[in-house]
Amino acid sequence: MEIMTDQRFRKTMKYLRAILIISLIGMALTVVMIGGILVYAKILGPPPLAVPQSTLFFADDGTVIGESHNGQKRYWAPLEDISPHLINATVSIEDKNFFEHNGFDYKRIAGAALADIKAMAKVQGASTISQQYARNLFLEHEKTWKRKILEAFYTIRLEMNYTKKEILEGYLNTIYYGNGAYGAQAASHFYFGKDAIDLTLAEAAILSGIPKGPGIYSPFASAEKANLRQKVILQTMVKNGMISQKEADQAVAEELKLVGEHLHPKTKTAPYFQDAVRNALKTQLKLDERTIELGGLKVYTTLNLKEQEIAEETVSKLMSRDSEIQVGFVAMNPKNGYVKAMVGGRNYEESPFNRAIQAVRQPGSTIKPLLYYAALEQGFTPSTPIRSEQTTFRFEDGTPDYTPHNFNSKYADDEITMAQALALSDNVYAVKTHLFLGEETLVNTAKKFGITSKMAKVPSLALGTSGVRVIELANAYSMFANGGKKVSPVMIKRVENHKGDVIYQQEPFQMKVLRTDLAFVMTHMMTGIFDPKLNGYARVTGSTVINDMTRPYAGKSGSTETDSWMAGFTPQLVTAVWTGYDKGQMITNTVEKTYAKNIWIRFMEEAHKGKPSKAFKAPEGTVGVYVDPANGKIAADNCPVKRLTYFTEGTEPTEYCTDHLSHEQEKKPEQSDKKPKTPWYKKLFQWAS
């Protein structure tokens, strides 16, 4: 009997030892496995916390003008910008031990398991805030073992690599509050029309109850259930020592004002400009489409809301609704290239094609200031005379004969100065100058002025037959206005990522590409299109808007059969306007031919209201001389018209005008055996007569 008992004892001990060994091995394997998981999690490092967020676009005064539209409203708010009431309410109802556990609340898990067993169904959740955040970031909400295992692994990685504050901040910025609102900031504005930092206790208790079931506990879904959920949360906060019972009762009694409108509804502010900004983010900053739309960027632009509104209203008021003629408009700050206003067409919904930056159209005579600047570099002056008469140019290289025509076929049939040729837009003077300089000169000069559109080396280039973009012309004229500094169109000043880190900052640059003296001389010549003193065989081309002007402007108009242009500037602002038909239809209506000039002057006058009237200041190296506009010589007392004209010092005229002396005042020329000397310009252009 004793032997049998001893055998049983030894057998039992054998089993126990086996169980112990297996348990130890199992524990060791478990420790190794857990250790391996932890080591692997550490090796992988912190998981990325980037989540889809709305990208916001700001005007130059910080006003939001638009956002990316993906059907979800997401705005990241730092934890310090979220109401403590919402933080406490969320922690109290979702995970009261959040700051104590390491990502998993084992006591809560056990309690939830017992509750589920008793009910024979899933009745209680046990996910911590860390687990929910991991799920929101990386996983679908499917109920599978694979998802649960991955959720646990991501939770470990989050807890190992981020602080509790970072996890809580991320959770509050990613949780779904219903009605397309993700995160506390978007939800606060949708439900209560305020920032998350300004939420009251009552409002916070309502919001923190929604994520459990947005379709059930949203006050817009069921006010009754939302209020019941609010009371539960407030009592939980009392129980957890976060608030007093009195505070809870006051919160329940508080009357809430619901808004039901998102912070930034889909806006139509400057839609063409916004498209251009998006394109710049892709082409200049090399950002991909997903980052632009879902990266939570803050894009600070150069748009001036007041000037944009003036531009849009001006176009709307002046252009007939019965006409299909289109418009391209750009206003820029010439000092830094900041685009202040842009209109790419008359109706964005009907046609998002941006005529301000995409359309390439013939600029007509607006190209002439660039040509004449090149001529100034080659020794021409505002007083340089060339004969204006109908001229046919013949070429020995086989190029077809070319006969440019002035408007209405009017010519001086005499010599005119460069200043007057620009003011009257004399085409013969322009083509003669162009051919004298060489056809490649204007091509190269256009590049210097920032024009990238292809220029054809042909005689008619002087009359603007090679297309340019509106924004290119505005940029080119900016270089006259700023004294010759290189600028490029700028629409984005700064870009921040969802964390507020600056990922792009526009850097100003100051590089001289034009001679300051010649830029000013050209600018002053461009004021001539508004000066009746330069009237000659025709009126100056800006005569129709002179009566609307209240300050000095410089500019140039231009027209072809299919295009109408006006571009000009003050020291503060440059604006270029194009009007025409998309398919190149001829502009025959007299009123339609005036749209560009009228839009330009109305905009400039309105945009400058309240701003000081600034004159164009003559820089060192220039000298102003009163000349007779008809011949460019120094005006004498008898000259009926005198106009102050600027020259580079040393190139001003030295000969006095004698055209208006009386017979008695005229001096007899001295007899001489020498033949009269032919002026250089007459020799140069005899072949073109």
In short:
Residues 328-581 form the Penicillin-binding protein transpeptidase domain. This protein has 689 residues and is of the alpha+beta class.
Describe the protein in words.
The chain has 689 residues and is an alpha+beta fold. The protein has 4 domains: 20-49, no CATH class; 71-253, Biosynthetic peptidoglycan transglycosylase-like (Penicillin binding protein transpeptidase fold), CATH 1.10.3810.10; 340-607, DD-peptidase/beta-lactamase superfamily (Beta-lactamase); 620-662, no CATH class. It is built from 23 helices and 16 strands. It has helices at residues 2-44, 84-94, 106-119, 129-138, 145-161, 164-174, 184-192, 201-209, 214-217, 223-239, 245-253, 271-283, 289-294, 305-318, 368-377, 418-424, 427-437, 439-448, 470-481, 516-526, 590-593, 595-607, 680-685; strands at 56-58, 64-67, 73-74, 181-182, 298-301, 326-332, 339-343, 385-388, 414-417, 492-496, 502-505, 554-559, 563-569, 574-580, 622-627, 643-648. Strands 2-1-5-10-11 form a 5-stranded mixed sheet, with helices on one face. Strands 7-6-14-13-12 form a 5-stranded antiparallel sheet, with helices on both faces. Helix 8 crosses helix 10 (223-239) and helix 15 (368-377) crosses helix 17 (427-437). Mean pLDDT is 86; it is low at 119-124, 663-677 and 680-689.
In angstroms, what is the radius of gyration?
A: 38 Å
The overall pLDDT average reads 86
Poorly predicted runs of 5 or more residues:
119-124, 663-677, 680-689
- The helix content, as a percent range, equals 25-40%
* Spatial sequence of strands, sheet with the most strands: 2-1-5-10-11
Question: What is the rounded distance between the termini?
Answer: 144 Å
What would CATH call the class of the largest domain? Answer: Alpha Beta
- Name the shape in a single word: elongated
The oligomeric state of the chains shown is: single chain
Query: How many beta-strand runs?
Result: 16
Q: In percent terms, what proportion of residues is strand?
A: 5-15%
**How many structural units, i.e. domains?**
4
Major beta sheet summary: 5 strands, mixed
What structural class do helix, strand and pairing data support? Answer: alpha+beta
Assigned CATH architecture of the largest domain: 3-Layer(aba) Sandwich
CATH superfamily of the largest domain: DD-peptidase/beta-lactamase superfamily
Number of helices: 23
Q: What is the CATH topology descriptor of the largest domain?
A: Beta-lactamase
